[in-house]
Amino acid sequence: MGQSVQTVTLTTAQAIVRYLANQYIEIDGVETRVCGGGFGIFGHGNVTCLGEAFYDNRDALPLYRGQNEQGMGFAAAAYSKAWLRRRFMFCSASAGPGTANLLTAAALAHANRLPMLMLCGDAFLTRLPDPVLQQLEHYGNPTFGVNDAFKAVSRFWDRITHPAQILQSLPAALATMLDPADCGPAFIGLPQDVQGWTYDYPVSFFDKRVHRIRRQAPDMFEIADAIRLLRAAKRPMIIAGGGVQYSGAVAELTAFAEAAHIPVVETIAGRANMVHIHPLNIGPIGVTGSDSANNVAEQADVILAIGTRLQDFTTGSWTAFAHDAKIIGLNAARHDAAKHMSATVVGDAKLSLETLATEMSGHKAPSDWTALAQAERAKWNDYVSENTRVGNGPASYAQAIGEVNRLCGPRDRVVAAAGGLPAEVTANWKTLDIGTVDVEFGFSCMGYEIAGGWGARIAQSQMEPDSDTIVFTGDGSYLLMNSDIYSSVLTDKKLIVLVLDNGGFAVINKLQNNTGNESFNNLIADTPTATRQVSVDFEAHARAMGAVAETVSSPAELEGAFKRAKAADRTYVICMKVDPYEGWTTEGHAWWEVGTPHTTTSDKVRDAHVDWESSRHKQRKGV
């Protein structure tokens, strides 16, 4: 007879937390916990059982107290991005609105392919006390509730109805979060009674396990097809996406581009794949890109798209490329590699680029093509220098970005999201070092900025404690979600936050005007129901949350303020008004498809519709 399996009696919650505490990952030869801890707000749905388990493991898995569940999720997403998806944080929320608040953050993590584990309360499995506080009742389906909403925004979803189920569910969730192709958020619903139920778990389930990120080698037939296209190309171009960094393939990208002399453009997620001064860095591509990258993209005959999901801001709603241009999709995810009839190379970027470099050995792109691309970049550099120059017109995002760029350290991390700042940072920021830019535009989510900065700072304090985390936020995003300024002060995770106040949602006002519409309900001044015009004192508000704060009246005063922020021992908020109408980056834009009225009584709206549609002929039809 075989030996009996040694077991330990634990609650479901205790087993979950003990399992997470014993999962490790090897990063550059060093083993560290794959779960860096978590963010939690307690309620009746998670405080008694999960809370007890978190307390017993508080040293191994530190629990950060959030102020808002959505902000917790943003912080977790930014943390995993900073760790290049090699580590994650969990978020624990109570049943009902606490969990519902995580939906937006889960969608952000899903769109950006970022790992995040959600451990959320659920209604009682026995249903004996039904209906319970915060339970949504669906008359024809008693199993259906708020947690089911997460099925649309999770890569892995489960509801635990018996303690034994975590033996399969937890490893499956972890495998999903660490999979380069399927990476994304995992959701586990935990009924309040099941959390406290016990089971005799195998002791071996809690043994230390060391994980490694899978590197899938490319198929050599696909490599051969890609090589044929690249060797025949007269005007090849590389689009470098965020997946290049997640694969750790920056060096391989650079070596391949240098050997083949191929121009490289970056997506928003791929910003900081190359430093600004690299001669083959032709700039950011797309709707919020650069004239240099977009002009090259229009002429390219073969496009090697690496680690990008080719969203519309990259492709200019698929008008950025010639109709007959051939695309090679190099991606760990088949879904992304095969977009728009691309020739596919499904595999890890690092391994695939090494293989491509070997097979392309000795081949170089035509020198006149590369020289043309570099000349385009030189012209764009001149534009950015003038665009960001203090005194060039009224106070603007670009001037603020230029001043911070000039004064920050090479390893400082920049965080921005949604509104006008992603475009302005993407177009105007000069990358000083690899992997130092986090512009969240996969879900374009207002409110990510400060919460994401907090999560990024937690990660940086573990990796690069001497660098700073710099957050750019508009007044609209600040008002939407600012409470993690307080979180950063509480946890001694210093941020430098620039609040650039343009009096409302100015970038959407700009879109409204550009499509012929009158300004309406975006700028505070143009909101008919705002019968009392009140300015927010952002400096006083930030001080009330424990930060140091000051207001500057012009970009010329930013230098002194930023140096004071650098020297400060805690979160420092710098506030400055910018012009809502003037000072926008006017160059570097590709066409973007937006819905405009096909019939209207307004001549301005009609003319704008005709003008907008005039570029549609450039749109690729999927081939």
Would you kindly provide a written description of the structure presented here, covering whatever features stand out?
The chain is of the alpha/beta class. It has 3 domains: about 5-210, Thiamin diphosphate (ThDP)-binding fold, Pyr/PP domains (Rossmann fold, 3-Layer(aba) Sandwich); about 220-380, Rossmann fold, CATH 3.40.50; about 390-575, Thiamin diphosphate (ThDP)-binding fold, Pyr/PP domains (Rossmann fold), CATH 3.40.50.970. The protein is about 35% helix and about 20% strand. It contains 24 helices and 23 strands. The protein has a 6-stranded parallel sheet with strand order 5-4-6-7-9-8, sandwiched between helices. The chain has a 6-stranded parallel sheet with strand order 14-13-12-15-16-17, with helices on both faces. A 6-stranded parallel sheet has the order 19-18-20-21-23-22, with helices on both faces. The radius of gyration is 25 Å and the shape is globular. The N and C termini lie far apart (about 65 Å). The relative contact order is 0.10. The model has no long low-confidence stretch (mean pLDDT about 95).
